[in-house]
Amino acid sequence: MQRPDELVGIDCFYVGRLKDTDGAIWQLTAIDVASSYAWAELVICKQGNPAARQTSKLAERVARELKDAGWQLERMLSDNGSEFRGLDFTRTLEKLKARHSRIHAGRPQTNGNVEALHKTILDECWRPAFARYIHPRYTGLKRELDTYLHYYNNDRVHHGRLTQGRIPADIVYRARKMEAK
Length: 181
Prior knowledge:
Layout: E1 8-17, E2 24-32, E3 38-45, H1 52-68, E4 75-78, H2 82-85, H3 87-95, E5 99-102, H4 112-132, H5 138-154, H6 168-180
Parallel strand pairs: 1-4, 4-5
Antiparallel strand pairs: 1-2, 2-3
């Protein structure tokens, strides 16, 4: 991947159940492969896994924010979960003019960027958050995630092969400006 917008990985991560929440809490996660810029949000799912309409909202948000930065979402990579096979998700990507690629069954490493992001958020956000709160609440977890993502995207240096010691927001928001000159 040479530039932001070429490929965005998307997946879901089970966070858990909270005492006062009617359903399971899931983290919907997307990551731009070239820049490591991340998007994530929490949803409550009363029955099983997240729905295609929920993952569609995240896809729309990703495309909108990339567009605001001067990029056009080209392709999304997901697993074969029902939340990505649903008609809502398919129509959303068609509307966004983005291709949809699916990983091969049993090969989660194909979507390794988003899997690595899940582990990073687990280690650096969720474990400390759950250690701090006696009774965590949904609104508190949303705040923790938003605060962490701001740090991850705007302050945390990434040392990956593609990011090479840069900050994701610098790549997404400043690279386009440099390219236009």
